[in-house]
Specification:
Layout (H helix, E strand, L loop, with lengths): L11 E6 L4 E4 L2 E8 L2 E2 L11 E8 L18 E4 L3 E4 L5 E11 L10 E9 L6 E6 L5 E3 L3 E8 L2 E2 L11 E8 L18 E4 L3 E4 L5 E11 L10 E9 L12 E8 L8 E5 L3 E8 L5 E2 L2 E5 L5 E6 L3 E2 L2 E8 L6 E6 L8 E7 L2
Parallel strand pairs: 2-9, 4-5, 11-18, 13-14, 19-21, 20-28
Antiparallel strand pairs: 1-3, 3-7, 5-6, 5-8, 8-9, 10-12, 12-16, 14-15, 14-17, 17-18, 21-26, 22-25, 23-24, 23-27, 27-28
Length: 353
């Protein structure tokens, strides 16, 4: 009798970590093992039998509809050829993490191949931390206003000013040219005009006189008292008088025709003059796939600071983004699609006007 044809090996997918137990401190690293399936970095390309990549999901069901991209809401999934993916800033509590094998074109296999694990992520337990991200200590700022940007870690910033205290939550107090109060149990306030209480990560001091000034930020309980122990950071900034206003000139303009197709932008570099009125004619050509266009600055500590964040649209659709390029930030930055940051990115350069 004739020899039977060999049966194709069935793809398998296993989550090797985390397990069904307590894991992580504010983040979760998901690692998988794949057999009988070729993981390739061909995201968005035509489907080829036996090869593709991985879709990672958090707290949603992995899509299984045949012929449709296996994507979910922004922030709940990631597509990558890596067998490890790190979810960061994960709130404490129970979470469901799933991984699915996907074809190059992001559709599920037939039948779908999915692995799921339920894990308890514990919240960050380190001490609260606070830094002033900008301006840097010793910076020279021209003009009569100074914007302080603070970043907190291991502390939940909430808009409950004057409310009841809760562990590891509160807001910011910003101070200018005074020492930040640190007496436990007493409101951390100073003279009017020298402090501000807010849940915003930025605060702008206006009508600042030329000269050397100190600026402080402090983490504060809901009832305006300092933490115990206090968490304060301080910088010095030299404020220079604004230059005389130049003769009025027409602001530069820049028009960018940007499209997204097959999970890729049609250009990898964009250059605009400082202060330009930028118009981005964005065409999302990927049917059923959400994309957008955003520009970011990478800070010295590895954090990112948004210059412009565009609205997400699902293709096929078009949208016109408009924003003004910063006048005093010439240099090289980057643009990307917030939904597919590892696939769709490029260099955004702001040149001298």
């Amino acid at each position: 009798s004739p020899t039977p044809s060999p049966t194709a090996a069935v793809p398998t997918l296993t989550i090797t970590s985390p397990g069904n137990n307590i894991f992580g401190i504010g983040k979760a690293t998901v690692t998988v093992q794949v057999t009988n399936f070729n993981i390739v970095n061909a995201l968005g390309q035509p489907a080829v039998a036996g090869q593709g990549h991985l879709h990672y999901y958090m707290d949603v069901d992995a899509p299984t509809a045949q012929g449709k991209p296996a994507v979910t809401a922004p922030g709940t999934y990631a597509a990558t050829a890596n067998t490890t993916y790190v979810w960061s800033n994960v709130p404490g509590g129970p979470h469901k993490f799933s991984v699915e094998l996907a074809n190059n074109d992001h559709t599920p296999l037939n039948p779908p191949v999915i692995a799921t694990v339920n894990t308890l992520v514990i919240p960050e337990i380190g001490p609260p931390q606070l830094v002033i991200a900008s301006p840097r200590d010793g910076a020279v700022v021209t003009g009569n206003s100074v914007t302080i940007t603070a970043q907190a870690a291991n502390f939940n910033i909430v808009d409950k000013l004057g409310g009841v205290n809760a562990q590891r939550e509160g807001h910011f107090h910003y101070f200018m040219d005074v020492e930040a109060p640190t007496v436990a149990g007493k409101p951390a306030v100073t003279a009017p005009g020298t402090y501000a209480a807010t849940a915003n990560t930025t605060y702008t001091w206006t009508n600042v006189t030329p000269g050397l000034h100190t600026f402080s930020a402090e983490l504060i309980n809901n009832d305006h008292t300092p933490l115990d122990p206090p968490v304060v950071t301080k910088i010095s900034v030299n404020v220079a008088a604004p230059a005389p206003s130049p003769s009025p000139t027409a602001a530069p303009t820049a028009v960018i025709n940007l499209s997204a197709s097959s999970f890729a932008f049609n250009m990898s570099t964009i250059s605009v003059p400082a202060g330009a009125a930028v118009t981005v004619n964005f065409n999302n050509m990927d049917s059923g796939i959400p994309h957008n266009f955003s520009v970011y600055q990478k800070l010295a500590g590895g954090q990112t600071n948004p210059i412009f964040v565009g609205k997400v649209i699902s293709g096929p659709d078009k949208i016109v983004y408009t924003f003004t390029a910063p006048k005093d930030m010439t240099g090289s930055y980057f643009f990307m699609c917030d939904i597919h940051p590892t696939q769709m990115t490029g260099t955004f350069t702001i040149t001298a006007p």
